[in-house]
Request: fold
Amino acid sequence: MATIGYLNRNERGALIGKIETLAFSNVVGLRPYQSNNPNAPTFEILARTAARTWVPIGGLWEQTMKSSGESFFQGRIDDPSMARPMDIAVFPNGEEGFNIAWTRRRNRQDLPGGGEGMDMPPASDEARDHADDDLGSSTAGDNSFLAGMTELGGMAGAGKGKGRKAAADIPA
Reply:
């Protein structure tokens, strides 16, 4: 985790700070999130625009470290101007403020205890970038479904209009 920002209380008690990376640099603030939903975030993350207004860009959920019992906040920021969402964690800095750390989302195979028994290695960045270029070969163990479709003469209802298939066309 790399520290990419900070939050401090201003004179009115609001948590305001800055996140700064090579691709994102902005003044940010936290606003308590009010909801009856137990899965709702604790805070909404807001970013200040050039017009000096605030726009929501993410949320933070309270977490507890298993090893020490200390509380911290974890969440994600996202905006149409960003290439991809950024996962962050917010920790008390011991000076009545908070440090913001960037965290990399890990593939399930990379997690401790995750991915056992999985035959496929994690996809490379290049493979993920070109995932929509080609569907590739099937990962299905057997193609009995596809074989059955071939025996029926293709997709059920193909060429019949509005997805309907005449009862006489269905083999017994």
Q: What stands out?
A: Residues 2-105 form one domain. The CA atoms of residues 12 and 130 lie 48 Å apart. The two ends are 62 Å apart (CA to CA).
